[in-house]
Amino acid sequence: MMCVIKQIVVVFVLLIHCSSFIQFSGAQTLLPADLSSIRWIIRQYGSNIVEDSVSICASGAFVCTNNRITAVNLRPGTSGFIASGGQPPSPTTNIDLQLCTQFVIQPPQSNNYRGDPSQNILLKIGTGLPIVNIFWIFDKLITILPAGFFTQLPRLGLLSMELGITTLQDNQLTLAPSTPISQISLELYSLKSFPAFQTAGNSLMTSVGTFTMYFNTSVSDNPVTFNISSSIFKNLGVLELKNISPNPGTVSVIASCEDMFVFNKIIYIAKMKSLSNHSTYYYFFLCMSRKLLTENDPKTSIDLVSLNPDAVKQLKVRGRLTSTPPLHQFNNLYKLIFEYSDIGNGYPFTSFPPSLTQYVRQYSNITTFPSTPKPTTTFNTWVYHHLSGIATVPWASLIPDNTSRLLDLDSGNPGIVGTVPEYFCINKLFITTTSITKVPDCYWCNYNDQTIFKTSMPLPIGFTCQPTLDLSTIHTIGYRANLTGSLLGWGNNGLHPTQGNYTLTPIVPNKILELYYKTNNGSEETVSIKLNDKEAHTVGFTIQEVGIIFTSVNVTQNPNQIISFNWSFLFFNPTLLHNFTLLPLSLGRSCKNLATIYNNKYGNATVRCDLDVSQLNIMSFNFLVANAYNQQTYNVPFKLSGQVDSTNQSLVYLFGDFRQNHSLANITINDKIACSVVSSTPDSINCTLSESASYGPASVYIVVDGYSFISKDFLYFTAPPNNNGSTTTTGGSTTTTTSSTTGGGTTPQTQCQESTSNCFGHGSCDVNGRCQCDNGYNPLDNCLTKFTNSTPITNTTAPTSSFEIDGTKFDFELVAIQELDNEGIVIAELLTNSWNATITNSDGLTLVDYQLVNISNALYIDTIVQAMISFSTQPRDIQFGDQLLHINPNSIKLALNITNWQYNNLISTLRVVFRTDVNMNQTIEYDCKQQSISTFSYDQLSSTIQYLRVIKDNIQYNGRFIDYVLSDGRPTFSKTTLINQTTSQSSSTPTTMSTLIGVSLPQCQSCLLDPDFTPLLIDNTVSDCGDSANSKTWKIIVGVVVGGFAAIAITVGAVMLLKKNVTVNKQKKAMQQKLQNMQ
């Protein structure tokens, strides 16, 4: 149908063009070459047009201008045709129409008359159409297409041909250089040998934008294959293929596409990607032709194989579909249409494709709507048209959650009856052609808005919509508040410049809407707003801005022993009384409000208040800022970060706000070791220890100008490796060896041989007790495991590190970002459970970019959370701080970016939370001996988790956690801890625990962690233990973290809730560049 529509459009344009010249034709005398050419055409195709200049130019079949033919349009409707008895054309005449731009020959399909069947019009043309742009020939009696024919049409733009040729080769499709061809349609129903479509020079393939081909597999000598390579079809936008064979046949199509329509024996592909300078994607579509599909034949089978399903965005299917891979793995598919398809009542997938937004079933005899699987929150539309087997709608199954969606029954459903229940008011509804007789008031309230409700029923006589609000006074924070009530509709995003630019965003349609209303001066206002601009009803209420949204504070010590706090607020109402009180409230330490500067245009303010220095004893101040309707707690800290020199651990670097007397700072490590200032600036201090500190985490205590700062586990002093090779963590590498030499003559080498079974048969112990592994084996576990080519699973719904071997799967998933106070208590949490993903491949590196979406908490509405997972089959070296990290081949690396996090106070920190299942009672067998495997291994000095080991069905996963991050570009201690464990619901083993693990991050403008996971394999075939089962190969997959655990890149800072778009875009681009640099 689509091809026919295109032909009608072009013909319509052509006829208008012809008509515009006919009115100027008049009595003209054609030049001899033009007249003889037209006479040959009239005689060859049996036209009844009289063969003189006046008759020719007066007909609708030819356009004459200044005694020349400028267009030929010989077809039914412009000429009559004879069936026999005509005068044959001259065999010596050639077509010579030097000024013709449009050349269309289309005799009646049922008329096979040719004046001289031995003559071929294509052999007559030669160079006779030098400026023709539109060239259509429909002559199924033509059996020869001359080689190089199209090189003689240098201005060719549109080509359509129906020929009776049996062979078509690439050299017959050659063009003249710079030919502007854009559309091609070939109807070759007798074709036995098909072209390879591989000519890369000047050809129809390299220039065409739309390519349509009709063929018949029943007459083909071989299976038909279309190799539509993007390197050849560089400009292809639309591909349409139709096989008219009534017999079984096979058509193979290799192409790159975004939109695909599969109609039994028709494959239509649109929007072909241009893949120059990029990796080429190929898709293989196999269409098994049974018989011509009709509305009464929904059982036609289609086998679809896609080698890269991620590029398919739309799929339309008639008949039964077998898809490889299954449809839920089409990660970018957003629209799926099934029509005339006998696939039963259920969905054609076991889980929703992650990007699917619209599902269409039409011309179907389904008896009910599917209720499982549950749709994603981004899915928004069901379309059920022309259903013959369903009478009532299972309304409850279409409300799987609080997400508003559209149910469209608007076409061909007179058999659907009943009433719509009140609880369905969460969804939009189209029911024009149904026999439904009653709907709730929520739909009548939106009768005039056809984006919400369509019906053929009239509005009930006397109906008046009466929405209600639960509260008559609305207090906004940052111009936002929730309206709750009934019949509130589906929101209003119209422009309302005279009413506070208000918008209404549905949270739960008809029940909860988020209101944005920009008030002017902070005073109470009485307003009346429309819930829907297409309806007359309104709601009225009193509104006032009461927000206290903090952005920054500066602290200044004045000479008179007064501390001045200069606060900046994004929102602050000066008409309300605000109290600034230092906590705890019982001490009654109020900060005296001296001055307020308010910006009426933007609603922001600066406020100054003073406190006597005698009321302060530390440099971290907890304030309660409150008005009558709102209160917020803020902490004014002494910001600090630090690191220990990696080569000289007596040298400590501190960074923060050290004020003007920075050189006089008093610094103590672990409550006893003095650190003398060597050099300093207002924002950095270098100091040296008076004695060596104990290895492990260390506290720091700083006093500057009488103000103090104290923090536990602030620095980390690393233990150096012992001579006998004991375990040490340094930067991004780890070496695991035997224990130190003991008495009795035992050497490190013999200890290594005994404890590791001589490196598990995959290496040897050296004199220092270290395993020197054979090539390809992992030194981190004394050669037990071997690097393998296992490919990790690409998860397009969440940034999860996943591996799967022999059906056993291990996931390490990111579940939340938490904000902690200085006591480690969670004060805010953002769940990371809804992502959009984009996959790119370049030079063997696979990158998956994730964007956290559907952030429902208004506090984080401007927070941007991005992640990137990279995988490469090649080893990589990546700079991380002052360390060069080597990433093994086939390794996963994760990066996480958080911007615009709004901290509750200025001393809180972040924690990234991951979840996995672990076995708390696990062993392996080696050399007929059971060996216990500890689930967690801790650093002896800092109690931070160093290793995680999980065994599942003889599959082992190891993870290693590095104990430092980069804080604003500087190495800083980071701790990995076990948060919580509960019995796993997904495992039948009682010792399997669902485990939450947290990685701590300081509060900083940029925090970076860098991880990778490497799959490893162990083959233990040296022992049979008298049991054949014990000699089977068992496998271990090991996640090795080199240089950091979470591969997290984080930019944090006090959030501005009303950011301009340009600012947010710049931040996105900057963070994406940082993430790219870490790959």
TrEMBL record:
<feature type="compositionally biased region" description="Low complexity">
    <location>
        <begin position="725"/>
        <end position="741"/>
    </location>
</feature>
<keyword id="KW-0732">Signal</keyword>
<feature type="signal peptide">
    <location>
        <begin position="1"/>
        <end position="27"/>
    </location>
</feature>
<feature type="transmembrane region" description="Helical">
    <location>
        <begin position="1036"/>
        <end position="1058"/>
    </location>
</feature>
<dbReference type="Pfam" id="PF22933">
    <property type="entry name" value="ComC_SSD"/>
</dbReference>
<feature type="domain" description="EGF-like">
    <location>
        <begin position="771"/>
        <end position="783"/>
    </location>
</feature>
<dbReference type="InterPro" id="IPR053331">
    <property type="entry name" value="EGF-like_comC"/>
</dbReference>
<feature type="region of interest" description="Disordered">
    <location>
        <begin position="725"/>
        <end position="749"/>
    </location>
</feature>
<keyword id="KW-1133">Transmembrane helix</keyword>
<dbReference type="InterPro" id="IPR054484">
    <property type="entry name" value="ComC_SSD"/>
</dbReference>
<keyword id="KW-0812">Transmembrane</keyword>
<protein>
    <recommendedName>
        <fullName>EGF-like domain-containing protein</fullName>
    </recommendedName>
</protein>
<dbReference type="InterPro" id="IPR000742">
    <property type="entry name" value="EGF"/>
</dbReference>
<keyword id="KW-0472">Membrane</keyword>
